[in-house]
Amino acid sequence: MLIGLLEDDPAQAQLLIAWLDGAGHQVAHAASGDDFLELYRQQAMDLAILDWQVPDKTGLEVLAILRGQYECQIPILFSTQRNTEADIVTALQSGADDYLTKPVRQAELLARITALGRRAGVVEVSEVMTFGPIDFNTQSQTVSVSGEPVKLTRKDYAVALCLFQNVGKVLSREFLLKTVWGVDCSLDTRTVDVHVSRVRRALKLGAGTGYGVKNIYQHGYRLHLLEESIL
Question: What is the DSSP string of 68-87?
Fold first, then answer.
């Protein structure tokens, strides 16, 4: 998984990064709340580990922005020295999925991360990826809906696949540009809007497929399962 880490203590951050890297995860690290939110805008994280007491915005404030403004649905684990029952309850009621008090133990941290990742349904890419009635063939780069082939341009296909590989995650326009068009791409972000709109129409996203795309104001898009789904 790609794990976002908010930790301002250099020694603690280095230790956690080494543990996570040794377990086969990638880590995107930030030492302040504002820097972490910017990092989240740029990368599609699978899970986040937040410290509470950090510069700029606290971990709790970052959690509120992720769950509220960004409608982030990835698992979020708190790792902090704050260990009162009131602190734990506050974090969990605010949207955290789990809570660890420092000093963190390696085996317990990795076990909790594995459990959170399993519940989040992190899926490995295979030749054929199925999402309800929608099938992606990653070898031929084709898509079908209810068995009927759908005509997509290569860029539309790449945008669609990126969205479905990150169901429930908010993807910024900048992230989609970098992923689909390349790291050095300087296209207008409105290009993303055009392609997402075409993908929405071509794949008939809505009640018929059980998936919808939501425009997250001033940020990007989130593909999500509809509440009343046929799946």
Answer: TTS---S-EEEEES---HHH
Tell me, what DSSP letter sits at residue 55? Answer: S
Spell out the alpha helix ranges (H) of 76-134: 85-93, 106-120
- Yes or no: say if 18 and 40 are a contact pair by the CB < 8 Å rule: no
SS3 for 132? coil
Task: From 21, 31, 6, select the one nearest 106 (Cα to Cα).
Answer: 21
Q: Using DSSP, state whether 225 is helix, strand or coil.
A: strand
**How confident is residue 165, by pLDDT bands cut at 50, 70 and 90?**
confident
CA pair distance 158, 43, nearest whole angstrom: 16
Query: Residue 37, Cβ neighbours under 10 Å: how many?
Result: 20
State the pTM of this model: 0.64
Domains contained in the chain, CATH given: 2-120 (3.40.50.2300), 128-225 (1.10.10.10)
